[in-house]
Amino acid sequence: MLLDDQLCFALYAASRAVTARYRPLLDELDLTYPQYLVMLVLWDRGAASVRDLGTALQLESSTLSPLIKRLEAAGLVIRRRHPDDERSVVVSLTDAGRALQDRARRVPPAMADAMGLTPEQHRTAKALLRRLTANVTGADTGTG
């Protein structure tokens, strides 16, 4: 029962360290880490329903909605009811939200440098973490 023998602590410490390393980079963008994750999905997809954002980010609507509201207040996104389903809310980027992507492009390489992993180590770490998540949640990621 030693702390250093616990995988959960290694994951916790790594998560805190990585998130802390993101903070100064994201401060320059006026984004929190969870807001950055929302923006990554929107930069990739252009628009997404709140449900699809929640699925992609593995977040509940009760956690996601305040993030989206703050992004909307900052002028980066806009929320609209889906025209075919009034219960569904679609989140889209504003011009300012799209423009922020150019400034954010330096974040991934800066984080890759900070992590100090080879490309192969990076792929292996990602695959192992995805497998661990799938095993713990009972989901199948199809990553083998």
UniProtKB/TrEMBL annotation:
One Pfam assignment: Staph_reg_Sar_Rot
Keywords: Cytoplasm, DNA-binding, Transcription, Transcription regulation
SUPFAM superfamilies recorded: Winged helix' DNA-binding domain (SSF46785)
Entry keyword annotation includes DNA-binding: yes
Keyword Cytoplasm: yes
The organism's place on the tree of life at top rank: Bacteria
Gene3D superfamilies found in the cross-reference section: Winged helix-like DNA-binding domain superfamily/Winged helix DNA-binding domain
Residue ranges annotated for the HTH marR-type domain, each copy included: 4-134
Main localization category: cytoplasm
Subcellular localization(s) per the UniProt record: Cytoplasm
InterPro entries: ArsR-like_HTH, HTH_MarR-typ, MarR/SlyA-like, Transc_reg_Sar_Rot_HTH, WH-like_DNA-bd_sf, WH_DNA-bd_sf
Protein name per Swiss-Prot or TrEMBL: MarR family transcriptional regulator
The organism of origin for this protein: Streptomyces thermoviolaceus subsp. thermoviolaceus
